[in-house]
Each structure stands twice: as C-alpha cells, then as structure tokens.
Amino acid sequence: MLSSPFIHTKRSTPWVMQQVALALMPAIVTSFYFYGWAVLSNIVLMIIACLAFEAFALTLRKRSLVSLGDWSAVVTALLLAMAIPPAANWWLIVVGAGLAMLLAKHLYGGLGLNPFNPAMVAYVVLLISYPVQMSQWIDPAQSALSLSTTLDIALFGSPIDQYTGATALDAVRHNAGLTISQLAEQNPATAWGAPHHFVSLSYLLGGLYLLARRIIFWQLPIALILGVLVAGVFVYDGSSESALSPAMQLAVGGTLMGAFFIITDPVSSPTTTNGRLIAGAFAGVLIVVIRHFGNYPDAVAFAVLLVNLCAPLIDYFTLPRTYGHSKAKRATDE
In degrees, to the nearest 5, what angle opens at C-alpha 301 toward C-alphas 300 and 303? Predict the structure, then answer.
C-alpha cells in the first residue's frame, strides 16, 4: 500500500508537452526565416507521420486512441523534424517517424517506459543508414526555398544538391588543412553571425522559458553546457586557427537544442539531482570528444543516447540517503 504524504499537481502530460512545443516556436520561426518553407514541410509531414504510427501502434496494442491527444507524438515529431535536414524527402520522414514511434517508443511499452529518447534513436538510425540524405543541409547563404521548390524536393524527389552546402562542423572536419579563419572566408557558416547561430540562440530562448516554467530541471542543461566548455578548452589551441573555440562548440550543431530539449527528457534521463549533474556533464564532454575524434561531425544524438544507457546506473549510485537512515544502515539493508 502506498503511504502518504502525496504531492498533487495540476500539471498534466498534455500541458507539459504543449509547453515544450511552445518553447520550440522561436527556433521554428528563426529556421523558417533562414531556410523557408523547407522547415515547415519537415514539420507538417513529420507530425502527420508520427501521429499515424502512434495510432497504428495503439490500435495494434488494443489501447485507446485518446493517447493521441497527449502531445507526446507531436513533440517527438517537432524535435526530429528540426534535427534532420530541411526539405527532406517524404520517405525519409516516414522512415524516421516509424523508427521513433514503433522502435524507440512502443516497442518498450509506450510513453513513460522508453529508455532512450525516441527522436534521437530515429535520428541516429537515419544518419547511419542514409548518410547522403542526412548530410544535405540547405545552404543559408542562398535565398530561402519557395513553397513550390520545397514541395518538388520533399514530395517528388527533385534534386536538392544545388541548394545545399557544408555545415560548420562538416567544414571544420573536412578543412583540408585550412585554418579556422581561412575557412570562415571560404565558408561563412564557420564564421560568427552565421544563420545557425541565431537558430541556436532561439533554442536557448526556448530553454530559458522551460526553466522559468519549471518544466525542465536546470542541472541537465547547465551541466551539459559546462561540460562542452570545459572539454572544448582541451581541444582548442587558443589561437582559433586549427579548432573550434569552446564558445563556438556551443553555437554550432545541435548543442543548445540537445541541452534544453533532448537530454532533459524526464523519461530517459536520471531522476536524482546529483545524477542529472553527472549526466549533463558526461553528455557535454562526449559531444566534444565525438566531434573531435569520431567519424560524425555532430555528436549530440550519440552523446544523449549513451547517457540514456547509463541513466539507471547513474541513478543507482546517486540515490539520496533516506531520511533517518545512516549509510551503514543502508548498506546493511542492501
């Protein structure tokens, strides 16, 4: 029998998910400004696909379709749609939605039982399986894609090569011996003030909103950011001529998105205060290490999934002492 006291709250799962979706709006609007209709095509198609797979899984499991209204599928769709390249082909979106909903969520029992972040599981599988399609990021130096061009690419598979360009992390990884300053002259994406920096700031703005509403715990994002900065110092030569500075490590890729919207997933992250600090710092260090030594330019998804894998172990070793029990008593009880 459960014992009191109980903590009651008016917060519901749909309300929390709606707040997360609202916090993503600044990043969505900023991305739309720089990339055009390509961003919205990803979002609309991904939401439709995720809800369809969610309904299929619930029907297969003989569960009520009322769960479609908890907004969890929508949030997963938004995160995955923003993580993959804009104007992705429809089939890539459908495959990603199926992976997130079926493989990463309902295979483990549905919402609240998934040990890994569904959006990141789908992203990693897509990245490994379709590296060419997942590297076709639209070059923000060009004009934003029109609606007709976006539909031709997303729905009918029209060539997208003429609209794409190397991201900052891609350019740094394949710099052919060029220094960072030379890269900035050759590729504006590696210079301060590039469009993706404004998108990153938009994720920061949304994250601050989530912190203000106490939707997420501050330990995870702050520890991740500090982990990136500290690890970034060790791979930085101090002259900005051969490696990204610690500050640039935060501004490029999905670092801030991962800090405020991915690793803060309450289901797959540690539940103890010290555990969140450890998990966040561990993820931050992993991001820099994988970027610097790994085979993939960005590393947020890989870092988050590794932390998700370690979450139960982190929780086990950071459990707070029960009030009134000494360490010796706890050891005896175990």
Answer: 65
